[in-house]
């Protein structure tokens, strides 16, 4: 259930893959800095496909406990990612935001918690529910 | 063909992205020490609140009409603008950022249905930023701007124009009769660059609608009014006269941006460009006798060079004192540039934007410099120099330190500012789960 957290951990293990592109080095001359293009790792690019449509929010509450979410966990929210069943999403319910797991079955939308003590949220008559964005990663800082 | 993409009630829309409780409510954004309204939601417009309305005059509506007033959060607006512009850029092959919430796009040679293309880009901007936009398309800047006005008004006031022009209006893709009836339904004062004074003069001369103005002989426009009005008439007739550099200035921001002829990678070259832009923007500012409180600088790569690594950097610089001094504006702009510049990218575009504009006559000192508020700039510079001499160079560096660190907020009255949700780690939106 810690898929998102794990996928970040996995991406961090690839940190050592910094690539160097050696340029042409003319014999007898010191190579100018431009001859090496060093590709720096960009964590944001790893966590979202659309950086300028991505927002960071802090999560508070324990309804996503089974996803490893604790108070203060950072959610990376991509607003251009098309929401699909099973995605963790930020939803607007009338004037409030919430973060839940989206479930779409037979055209019926539900927002589910990842904690058995929370009931599912089913949009009620007259209620506006809008999926604002898809959470593409969860970041939990550890005490250091 | 040219397109003008414009964010609706831009500052309010930026706030609503993070404050859904503000949806459907009358909202105004206040500027200049919370003195007057510089942005209004449609609901606030419906209450009769005018642009620039002093806060003390509308304050009673807080209680009576549920009016919400917020202090301008320029850091948020700057970031949301950068996001909007990034997605708007995909509409055409060249983009000119005209102000914080408007940009022109060159659609020349782009095949296919431009209205459909605009609707797609519009919905992408809406999904990515929640900022509703309108797109106007026409063969000249003035006509694109007019089309944008029609698109916006058709949406906001049903019945004002045919509803199929709402959100996206393409003046170049309709029969002559249809465009004639749109021009006839629009008052001459709505034309870009005409303004209230010339508009009243035209009305008096019997030129009531945009259509009437478009029928005017350009040489008459020049003789009886000005070269600018002559250009406007020609533009309405379909002949481009305003290039990407030469146009009537916007009211609330001054922007000087340009696409480079060839990719630029070095800091030195960018510094030259930013210096030129900052000086030009300061010049425009002085022409309208204004002071700026915020300088924004951006640099970005080209989204059309897919083979290139992409980067878009921008940052705002809050001037310690509002100013129109080229040297101080340039100094701020260059400090921002050094903070956002990353080596190794092919930069295609850069710009300087001046915001939080106020008339020079309203200038207020936040520091007691021992000079009267109406003193000339020369005296101010003398006082600043004296301060620096007395307290050391670091005194002036206080202003530049604002790039890396939080500038002191004491200079500004911003009692109602929302958090800077997108630019400060300690001010992010909190979502319950």
Question: Can you describe what's shown?
Answer:
The complex is a heterodimer of chains A (144) and B (433). With 144 residues, chain A is mainly β. In chain A, 11% of the residues lie in helices and 35% in strands. Chain A is built from two helices and eight strands, in the order αββαββββββ. In chain A, strands 3-4-8-5-6-7 form a six-stranded antiparallel β-sheet. Chain A has a two-stranded antiparallel sheet with strand order 1-2. Mean pLDDT of chain A is 82; it is low at 1-26. Chain B has 433 residues and is an alpha+beta fold. Chain B folds into two domains: 2-6 and 76-236, 2-Layer Sandwich (Alpha-Beta Plaits); 254-405, DNA polymerase, Y-family, little finger domain (Dna Ligase, domain 1). Helix content of chain B is 39%, strand content 21%. Chain B has 16 helices and 13 strands. In chain B, a hairpin with a 4-residue loop joins strand 2 and strand 3 (36-40). In chain B, helix 13 (267-287) packs antiparallel against helix 14 (326-340). Classes of the chains: A mainly beta (144), B alpha+beta (433). The A-B interface holds A 37-39, 50, 52-53, 55-64, 69, 74-75, 79-80, 90, 92, 94-100, 113, 132 and B 20-21, 23, 82-83, 86-87, 124, 127-130, 309, 312, 344, 421-422, 425, 428-433.
């Amino acid at each position: 259930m810690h898929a998102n957290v794990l996928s970040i951990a996995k991406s961090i293990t690839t940190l050592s893959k910094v690539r160097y592109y050696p340029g042409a080095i003319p014999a007898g001359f010191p190579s100018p800095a431009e001859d090496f293009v060093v590709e720096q790792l960009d964590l944001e690019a790893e966590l979202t496909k659309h950086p300028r449509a991505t927002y960071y929010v802090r999560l508070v509450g324990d309804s996503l406990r089974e996803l490893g979410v604790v108070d203060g966990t950072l959610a990376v929210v991509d607003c251009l990612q098309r929401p699909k069943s099973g995605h963790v999403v930020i939803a607007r319910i009338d004037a409030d935001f919430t973060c839940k797991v989206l479930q779409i079955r037979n055209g019926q939308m539900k927002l589910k918690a990842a904690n058995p003590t929370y009931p599912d949220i089913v949009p009620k008559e007259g209620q506006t529910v809008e999926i604002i964005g898809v959470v593409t990663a969860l970041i939990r800082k550890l005490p250091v | 063909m040219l397109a003008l993409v414009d964010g609706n009630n831009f500052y309010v829309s930026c706030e609503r992205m993070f404050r859904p409780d503000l949806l459907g409510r009358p909202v105004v954004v206040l500027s200049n020490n919370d003195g007057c309204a510089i942005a209004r939601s449609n609901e606030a417009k419906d209450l009769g609140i005018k642009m620039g309305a002093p806060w003390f005059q509308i304050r009673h509506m807080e209680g009576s009409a549920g009016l919400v007033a917020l202090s301008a959060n320029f850091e948020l607006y700057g970031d949301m603008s950068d996001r909007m512009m990034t997605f708007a850029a995909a509409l055409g092959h060249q983009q000119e950022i005209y102000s914080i919430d408007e940009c022109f796009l060159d659609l020349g040679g782009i095949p296919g249905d431009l209205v459909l293309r605009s609707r797609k880009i519009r919905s992408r901007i809406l999904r990515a930023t929640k900022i509703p936009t309108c797109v106007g398309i026409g063969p000249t800047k003035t006509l694109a701007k007019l089309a944008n006005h029609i698109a916006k008004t058709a949406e906001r006031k049903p019945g004002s124009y045919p509803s199929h022009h709402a959100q996206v209006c393409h003046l170049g893709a309709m029969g002559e009769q249809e465009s004639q009836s749109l021009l006839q339904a629009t008052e001459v004062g709505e034309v870009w660059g005409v303004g209230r004074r010339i508009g009243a003069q035209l009305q008096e001369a019997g030129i009531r609608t945009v259509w009437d103005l478009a029928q005017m002989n350009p040489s008459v426009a020049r003789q009886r009014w000005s070269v600018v009005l002559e250009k406007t008439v020609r533009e309405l007739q379909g002949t481009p006269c305003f290039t990407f550099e030469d146009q009537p200035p916007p009211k609330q921001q001054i922007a000087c941006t340009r696409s480079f002829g060839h990719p630029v990678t070095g800091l030195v070259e960018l510094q030259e460009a930013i210096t030129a832009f900052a000086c030009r923007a300061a010049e425009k500012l002085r022409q309208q006798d204004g002071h700026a409180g915020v300088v924004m600088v951006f640099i970005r790569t080209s989204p059309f060079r897919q083979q290139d690594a992409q980067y878009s950097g921008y940052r705002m610089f809050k001037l310690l004192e509002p100013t129109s001094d080229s040297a101080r504006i340039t100094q701020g702009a260059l400090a921002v540039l050094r903070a956002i510049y990353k080596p190794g990218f092919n930069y295609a575009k850069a710009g300087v934007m001046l915001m939080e504009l106020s008339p020079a006559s309203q200038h207020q000192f936040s520091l007691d410099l021992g000079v009267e508020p109406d003193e000339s700039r020369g005296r101010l510079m003398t006082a600043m120099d004296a301060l620096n001499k007395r307290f050391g160079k670091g005194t002036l560096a206080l202003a530049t330190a604002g790039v890396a660190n939080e500038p002191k907020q004491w200079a500004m009255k911003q009692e109602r500012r929302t958090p800077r949700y997108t630019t400060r780690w300690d001010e992010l939106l909190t979502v319950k789960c």
